[in-house]
Design goal:
4 copies of one chain form a homotetramer. Chain A is 47% helix and 12% strand. With 304 residues, the first copy, chain A, is an alpha+beta fold. In chain A, the strands form 3 sheets. Chain A has a 5-stranded antiparallel β-sheet. The first copy, chain A, has a two-stranded antiparallel ribbon with strand order 3-4. The longest helix of chain A has 14 residues. The radius of gyration of chain A is 18 Å and the shape is globular. Chains A and B meet through helix 12 and helix 13 of A and helix 12 and helix 13 of B. Chains A, B, C, D: Belongs to the glutaminase family. Chains A, B, C, D: This is Glutaminase. Chains A, B, C, D: Homotetramer. Chains A, B, C, D: GO terms for molecular function: glutaminase activity.
């Protein structure tokens, strides 16, 4: 099947949502992005690749980085990681302190901010040059040496991360951060600042889509079972407090970021990345979600 | 592949858990069940069927009935149903009132008790003989006319359903129950009392596993898209507050009940039902979960 | 001191608030009251009485009845009562289920609905003709045999008490209601339906203001210490989730009702009842609160 | 009346509780205190003073400092303060983040940690040498120039204040801290480290007990109405999540600290300070509460 006509059709169908929502504006680097952009890249396991729109424009991946940091932390710590982080959907906002207090500092899952702070802490504890290690890992996955952190984004995030600082100190209070809080926040914000295009992301997530073979990239090694489990967590927790809706509408493991990117995958078949900065009230890209919903509806290729 | 040797192997592996946990004991009909039973039935889409242990012994399906009632309610009301029930994991216990109060009487999803009370209410409003209609639907799916409600279980449940009554009155307060509270509780408890064997359940869930074709059974009609969406909700919300763990360990859409049954499915491949009465602290069958984890690990056939 | 000129002055001062807020409208009997009424009655311990406005017009006392039922239940059960009800401010709305769930069915205090349902249950268990006993107690306190229940209000409340039913079933679930839920709701709604004037209420609460002598009225007997403790609970919990504000502004033990009445007392000095149907968002009479604030500010006679 | 025999009697009565509970041990400076000490000082408005036990031994006043900082902040900012802090009992632990998140960063009252961080922030913003100003204010109230901060306690508190840091960053996130978080924490911990004896505290709180005259001490000026309102907040919120119980048992405005001190007052009559390091599960001195309960029961001198 040639997917290009379908992708063009989807592009037309979602045009009606082109001006709904607005981009994240809590830091200048995100607020200043032109919101009227859309890109998509589809990688089929057989080697074919399809592009649409601004598929080669880099954007801030933000929370999508949480999948990469989970992969690294799980590779480093193994199943002990699950003594410090749960695997359940949170049922609350990604930055909520309420559940974390009730559950004594054990984050619900690795994709809420609290959980990703813990994965950052694990990496800081066990890797000598964590920033170099991490960017090298991402570059290797995406097969693109030009991927970088954005210093501007890191700086901005650090200057307005009071809520994350509050979460981090609560984790520290419960003994679930081993490094200095400011070091953890710095590394967390740095990882969120990575800039990638849809092409980069789609290619990088092929490593997770190939879940029937072991994962071994740039020093990060995961068994088949662990790759499948990362995919399972993407399925149940990948789109903040809209993960159930996304599973319902799209039916694929995926992860989103407030930069407007969403990357999804069909195990053993394909990975697909979309990007459009305008977000809904849950922090997910409106055109991105719609494009993915149409894609799995038209192809009838959801995992369900 | 002949699955029988694998199933026998799994049976031996899980023997070590045979005396962990205990059965539900809040009503005599469940407390009096012999807890040391185990059954399993696997139906492959190509027609093969495999059995293990007490696969033909009937047990109380309890919350597994919520999948059937969701199918009926969705068939009757269509997408309007989602104005009365959400699709997100709850992040809290299946019988919690907290979230329901904060969210003004809209249950998080159709598989927590509050959500299933609403699906019961929908059916009561739109079907003349709801109990007859429902049991006929279940019998048709399982191709077994000998499936029945247990009057004893219904009576017992009704005599100790104060918490469900509390939830029902809170729904009523918010305008999200249209029928008399006691009629809804009666119908809800009746549906939970259905008794089926693993063979019955596995066969019945083949209708959901066949998600690439429309669902049309005993007057309940669902499009391909709706069947897939029911499966997606099973994936994110099917095992109470352990749905994330189950997705992580097993990786299949599934639904469990406090009678000790769990039924899971791999879309377009197979459905599998297990039963063993001893439960963990979340209300899910210990041996059942373990058996399913081993099955998807050994076959490497999870959807992820 | 002659209080009449001060009371007249207060009446003028609060005129500016005469049209703020609106009366309770969840039942016809309250919705149909003329909202533009105001009454006040002040009883000094030395025997003097002062009146203002519609001080002799009867209105629905609603939650003010919770003080009377607490007095009866405490007289009957003694300190054992505090094993079933707490004494702490709730920090949440008077009809919240959240705290009750977290605290396993022990209401925070006797003046939230959950707590008053438990006091009603205690009375039902220990008194043969509870409705006769209760109205006789209230008539004796107020020295007015013409005080009665309103059957219309009771009927209306019972027909729209889904939220209280939800609370009652949650109490029942936790073993903290011993009688039939519907009997408890019926008695609870009946007690709330009592109709009294400001004159009646002010006179009745003199029994609590006289806290340096034992309380013995119509078969209800309380030691000095217990009367003081009822007053203390009025201080910390008497005005729903506005008790702190009221202590801050007025500085007297008091109890309010959604009928627009508030009755307050200065131990060993006076009791004062006000009534005006228009309520603020917390369910307390706007003109009533303002009148009491002015009264204690002008006289500098708060307990603090 | 000569209170000395009564005080001696109380001392004997509470001996039975002498070994219940244990002192705070989260910092060495508190853990190393001899827990088996008891002191009491009573100041009557007519000038008489009574002593019992270790009434002249200094201890860490901890949260009792929150009354002094509230007085300063209210003097500085006036009623605008109440736009940043509420006046309601919290119904939850003194260090809970849950309510603060739900209520968007406005602390429930000035005596929970979140509220006291805001009063510290107000003082930092408006006073040039806040630490000097504050200690001078406390010395003036207690008429004792030898009262000092404990540098050791301040240092210890600062080294283990992750939970307060979490609260402070959440306040900052909501715009309710204007100064640098670390400056606020430093000033907050410094104020908590003040060391005073029962004699100092009882004398200092006479300024609040004299609520029928304006408060003007060391540059801190409060109207009669404002003093009464501080007393009202002590009544409803002064003993953490045990304020209702304390009002019930003792019936006086009061403030406690985890150093084991409690100071209470009867407006226009007396102030009384007790100290004993062993605490109950709510963080209040066991012997201290018991002594005060006996004192108001025996004298029948509660405000109710």
């Amino acid at each position: 099947m040639d997917y290009q006509p379908l992708l063009e059709h989807i592009r037309q169908e979602i045009e009606v949502y082109a001006h709904d929502g607005k981009q994240a504006d809590y830091i200048p680097a995100l607020a200043n992005v032109n919101p009227d952009q859309f890109g998509l890249c589809l990688n089929i396991l057989d080697g074919r690749t399809y592009h649409l729109g601004a598929s080669d424009v880099k954007f801030s991946i933000q929370s999508i980085s949480k999948v990469f940091s989970l992969a690294v932390a799980l590779s480093l710590l193994g199943k002990e990681l699950w003594q410090r982080i749960g695997k359940e959907p949170s049922g609350t906002a990604f930055n909520s302190l309420v559940q974390l207090e009730y559950e004594h500092g054990k984050p619900r899952n690795p994709f809420i901010n609290a959980g990703a702070l813990v994965t950052a802490d694990v990496i800081l504890s066990l890797i000598d040059n964590p920033k170099e290690f991490f960017i090298n890992f991402v570059r290797t996955l995406a097969d693109n040496p030009d991927i970088n952190y954005s210093e501007e984004v890191t700086r901005s995030e650090l200057s307005c991360c009071n809520l994350n600082a509050s979460i981090a100190y609560l984790l520290k209070h419960h003994g679930n951060l081993h490094n200095d809080v400011h070091d953890v926040l710095d590394f967390y914000c740095t990882m969120c600042s990575v800039e990638m295009s849809c092409e980069d992301l789609s290619r990088a997530f092929m490593a997770f889509a190939k879940s029937s073979q072991p994962f071994s990239h740039a020093g990060v090694n995961l068994s088949i079972s662990r790759v499948k489990r990362i995919n399972a967590i993407m399925q149940t927790c990948g789109l903040y407090d809209e993960s159930g809706e996304f599973a319902f509408l799209v039916g694929l493991p995926a992860k989103s970021g407030v930069g407007g990117g969403i990357v999804a995958l069909y195990p053993s078949r394909y990975s697909i990345a979309v990007w459009s900065p305008r977000l809904n009230s849950k922090g997910n890209s409106i055109m991105g979600m719609k494009a993915l919903e149409l894609f799995t509806s038209e192809t009838e290729e959801s995992i369900f």
